[in-house]
TrEMBL record:
Keywords: Signal. InterPro entries: Expansin/allergen_DPBB_dom, RlpA-like_sf. The keyword Signal applies. The keyword Flavoprotein does not apply. This is Expansin-like EG45 domain-containing protein.
C-alpha cells in the first residue's frame, strides 16, 4: 500500500496554525451582568442598617440587584468585577478588576426604570475604577463578575 510522506508534515503545519488561534480566545470564568452607579446617601443599608463600619476601606462596595440578592444572603458577599463593554468605545478601563462587598439591596421598588434587571449598583469609587465615566454614554455598563 502506498503511504504519503507529506501527511505528517501537514499535521505539523495544522498544529502550528491552530495552537496560536486557541490562545487568542478570552476565557470567561464568571457571569455576565450589568452594573449601574450607586449614589449616596449610602446609609442606612438593608444589610447592616446605619453601621458605617460596614463599608470597606477601599470604598469598593455595592448594592445587590434582585437577581443576586438571594433574600438577604448576599449581604457581605464579595465579588470580583470588571467592565466588559458599553455602547461607547473606551468606556471600560481595561485590565481593571476590583473586589466589591455587597452592603445593600436595590430591588423592584427602586425608582430607576430598569433597576430590576441590574445585577449590581457600584459605589462611585468602584464604578469610576472600572469604567471611564467621561466616555460612558449610559448609566449602565456590562460586567463580568464572580463570587
Amino acid at each position: 500500500m502506498y503511504r504519503s510522506q507529506s501527511q505528517p508534515c501537514l499535521q505539523g503545519l495544522s498544529l502550528i496554525f491552530l495552537v496560536p488561534l486557541f490562545f487568542n480566545f478570552h476565557t470567561s470564568y464568571g457571569d455576565v451582568g450589568t452594573a449601574a452607579l450607586y449614589s449616596p446617601p449610602y446609609l442606612p443599608t438593608a444589610c447592616y442598617g446605619s453601621d458605617a463600619s460596614q463599608f470597606p476601606s477601599s470604598k469598593f462596595f455595592a448594592a445587590a440587584g434582585h437577581g443576586i440578592w438571594d433574600e438577604g444572603a448576599a449581604c457581605g458577599r464579595q465579588y470580583s468585577v470588571r467592565c466588559i463593554s458599553d455602547s461607547t468605545p473606551d468606556a471600560c478601563n481595561q485590565n481593571q478588576t476590583i473586589q466589591i462587598t455587597i452592603v445593600d439591596h436595590i430591588g423592584q421598588e427602586a425608582s430607576v426604570p430598569s433597576a430590576y434587571n441590574t445585577t449590581v449598583f457600584l459605589s462611585a469609587t468602584a464604578f469610576r475604577t472600572i469604567a471611564n465615566s467621561s466616555t460612558t454614554s449610559s448609566p449602565y455598563i456590562n460586567i463580568e463578575f464572580q463570587q
